[in-house]
Amino acid sequence: MAALTANRPRHTRNDHLKRTIEITGVDSDEFYSGGLISWSASAATVVMSSDTASERIAGVCAERFSTGSSNTKKILIEWGHEEWFPVAASSIVTGDEGTDAVVADDQTLGEVADESNDVIVGKIVELETINGTAGAWVVVGLQTGTTDEQTINGDLSITGTLGVTGTTTAAAINASGAVGVDGDFDVATSKFTVASASGNTLVAGTLDSTGDFDVNSVFTVAAASGDTVISGTAAVTGATTTTGGITQAVAMTGIINTHITVATTGTDKTPADGTQWVTSIFVPANFTCTNIEFLVGSVGGTDRVYGVIYDAAGTNLANSDLTSDGIVCGTAAQVMQLPLTATQALTGPATYYVGISAKGTTCRIRTMPVYLGGGHFAGDVAQTHATVGAITPPPSFTADEGPFIILT
Fold first, then answer.
1. Do the Cβ atoms of 304 and 325 come closer than 8 Å?
2. Helices (H) and strands (E) in the chain, counts
3. 337/332 Cα distance (integer angstroms)
4. In three state form, how does the secondary structure of 186-210 look?
5. Strand 65-66 versus strand 304-310 pairing type
6. CB of 376 closer than 8 Å to CB of 400
7. Is 255-407 in CATH node 2.60.120?
8. What is the pLDDT of residues 33-89, one digit of tens each?
9. C-alpha span between 108 and 84 (Å, rounded)
């Protein structure tokens, strides 16, 4: 066909149905107002239409435009409305309404059954002669037997609102602005769902977050440290295991294994060289220990004593001074303090063991009698005096062998 060489006078109606797109034109070409526009062979740019069967109509050129070499300019194209086109002689006649119009010579239209190509422009609505020229009104882009659909293979720019009443299928959707969804939302049917009525969200897989997590400031997780703050009640039905212990808002000043009611509480125990008296002690929260304290019995002085802290497995963690076999035993019927050689951080809640050793048999150590044994482990272990090593913790309570202990 001969190419359109001038702007075509346009007659349009039902313009409220008109839609516009901007698509890149081919290099070094002229686009005329009112001319039919087709996709190029690459389906990425558009050209002025011809009666070549392999072409597909994109719409009608809205305004004249000249493209250059290495072109990146876009052509404004309209479709969806009704537009009047001149028709080839005797090609479209009364009775052809409702059939498809195709491109004929000089961008006139012919009826699909009378032409030798299948470049469909749209559905014929009405025949009308305007200014002495026979023509037909055509719904641009609508074919018989179809709904009002359009396939876009190139870039599509829409400056207004895009309304979609049917299902939209896309291999990928990228949005740089806000996306609003009024109905339920799901990924792969059930892997990630959001109920529009309630906002309830279900995640079937693993949810990873690299930033902070905050629920109305009452439940927060700091991404950098993992620190978690719960302002409400945490209900736990299973076991809770902590590796870093529990830190109290106000630190404890001391921990005891059992209450001392009077200075003569318990049994007056005679120590033995090479024997250590060991008791369990429960540490309810993280605690920094500086001293071991024990209740001296009816006799103090003379013998040298020291204390040791062990973990639940019997590994020695800290001890008081071992120089010269320890420190001389304190005053009778008083609590004696044995400073540790270095402070010891105890992680709680956890069970620990404390042992008291004395070199000699003169002093006395107050120990727990049978009626105080509930919930304690206590017993004696063999240990060379002033030599600290791991022990096997007592597996049960033996009366009169567990000293009264305070950790401060």
1. yes
2. 0, 31
3. 13
4. EECCCCEEECCCCCCEEECCCCCCC
5. unpaired
6. no
7. yes
8. 988 888 876 667 888 887 676 678 889 999 988 887 776 778 899 989 999 988 877
9. 10
